[in-house]
From TrEMBL, chain A:
It comes from Streptomyces iconiensis. Gene3D superfamilies: Fumarate reductase/succinate dehydrogenase, transmembrane subunit. This is Succinate dehydrogenase, cytochrome b556 subunit. Keywords: Heme, Iron, Membrane, Metal-binding, Transmembrane, Transmembrane helix. Belongs to the cytochrome b560 family.
Automatic annotation (TrEMBL), chain B:
The keyword Mitochondrion does not apply. Signal peptide: none annotated. This is Succinate dehydrogenase hydrophobic membrane anchor subunit. Keywords: Heme, Iron, Membrane, Metal-binding, Transmembrane, Transmembrane helix. The chain crosses the membrane at residues 52-75, 95-113, 134-154. SUPFAM superfamilies: Fumarate reductase respiratory complex transmembrane subunits. It holds the Pfam family Sdh_cyt. InterPro entries: SQR/QFR_C/D, SuccDH_FuR_B_TM-su.
C-alpha cells in the first residue's frame, strides 16, 4: 500500500469505487432520460423518432449496461445500509459483497434476452 | 559502563510511560466537536440528514426503479413496445403518474446529493467546487421542474 493514502484496496474499497462510478453514470443518464421523455409534450412524432434511437443495436446494448449499473448500485446500496444499520454489518461486509455479486450475475443472466431481444430479433431474424 | 546501562534503560522507560509530565498526550478534538470557532453554517445537522436521506430514498428507489426497468425494458418485448401510445396508456392511470413523479424527485435528489459528495471529494480549488456545484444545482432544479411539468400537463390528444 502506498504511503499517505486512505485507499485500502480489496472488497471494501473497490465496491465503494464501483458504487461511485455506477452512481455518476446513472445520474447522467437520468438527465438525458427526463429530456427525451419531455418530448411527449412536443409531439408524438418527436417522441417516437427519439425513442427509435433507443431501439438501435448499440444503444440497446448500452441499456443492458444501464441495467448492469443500476442492479449493482441497488444491491450494493442495500449492502451499505446493512453495514450502517445492522450490528454485524461491518463484520460480514465481504460476504455480503459476494452475495451481491452472485445475485447480480443471476439477474444479469436473466435480463440478457428480455432486454436485448429487440436487437437479437432485428439482427438474427424472428 | 555506567553510561551504557543508562542509555539502554532510557528507551524502555520511555515506552512504559509514553505520556508523562514532560510529554503530555496531544489533545485531539472529537471530529465533529463544535467550538466557538465553528462557523455558523456548519452548526446544523444537514450532513446527517443528507446521509439518512440517501439510505431512505435508496430503499424506496430500489422498488420504484427496478419496477420501472421491469416494465420498460424486460416485460412484454423489452424496448420494442415503447412509444407515445405506450406512455399515454401508462399515464392514463394516476397510480403510474404518482409512481413516476416520486421516482423523478427521489432519483434526482439522490443523484444530486451523490454528485455533490463526489464534487466535494475531488474538486480541490474553492472556485472549481463552487461553480461545479452551482452547475449541478441549476441542472437539478431545471430537470426536476421540467419532468414534473411534463407529468402534470401530459396530453394524450396533443397532435
Amino acid at each position: 500500500m502506498p504511503a499517505g493514502t486512505l485507499y485500502r484496496g480489496r472488497e471494501g474499497m473497490w465496491s465503494w469505487v464501483a458504487h461511485r462510478v455506477t452512481g455518476v453514470l446513472i445520474f447522467f443518464f437520468l438527465f438525458v432520460h427526463v429530456l427525451d421523455t419531455a418530448l411527449v409534450r412536443v409531439s408524438p412524432e418527436a417522441y417516437d423518432d427519439t425513442v427509435a434511437i433507443y431501439k438501435t443495436p448499440l444503444v440497446n446494448l448500452m441499456e443492458y449496461g444501464l441495467v448492469a449499473a443500476i442492479l449493482f448500485h441497488a444491491l450494493n446500496g442495500l449492502r451499505v445500509i446493512a453495514v450502517d444499520f445492522w450490528s454485524k454489518g461491518a463484520k460480514y461486509q465481504k460476504q455480503m459483497l459476494w452475495t451481491v455479486m452472485g445475485i447480480w450475475i443471476v439477474l444479469m443472466a436473466g435480463a440478457f434476452y428480455p432486454v436485448l431481444q429487440h436487437t437479437l430479433r432485428t439482427l438474427f431474424g424472428s | 559502563m555506567s553510561t551504557e546501562t543508562t542509555q539502554a534503560a532510557e528507551p524502555e522507560d520511555a515506552q512504559v510511560t509514553l505520556y508523562d509530565v514532560d510529554h503530555p498526550a496531544p489533545v485531539i478534538e472529537p471530529p465533529r466537536a463544535r467550538t466557538g470557532k465553528t462557523p455558523k453554517a456548519s452548526r446544523t445537522n444537514f450532513e446527517m440528514y443528507g446521509w439518512l436521506f440517501m439510505r431512505l430514498s435508496g430503499i424506496v428507489l430500489v422498488v420504484l426503479v427496478l419496477g420501472h426497468l421491469l416494465i420498460q425494458l424486460v416485460l412484454d418485448g423489452g424496448v420494442s413496445k415503447i412509444g407515445f401510445a405506450f406512455v399515454a396508456g401508462r399515464w392514463a392511470s394516476p397510480f403510474w403518474q404518482v409512481w413516476d413523479l416520486a421516482m423523478l424527485w427521489l432519483a434526482m435528489l439522490h443523484g444530486a446529493n451523490g454528485l455533490r459528495t463526489v464534487i466535494n471529494d475531488y474538486a480541490e480549488r474553492d472556485t472549481t467546487r463552487f461553480w461545479l456545484k452551482w452547475l449541478l444545482y441549476a441542472a437539478t432544479v431545471f430537470t426536476v421542474l421540467l419532468g414534473t411539468l411534463v407529468i402534470f400537463t401530459f396530453d394524450p390528444n396533443i397532435r
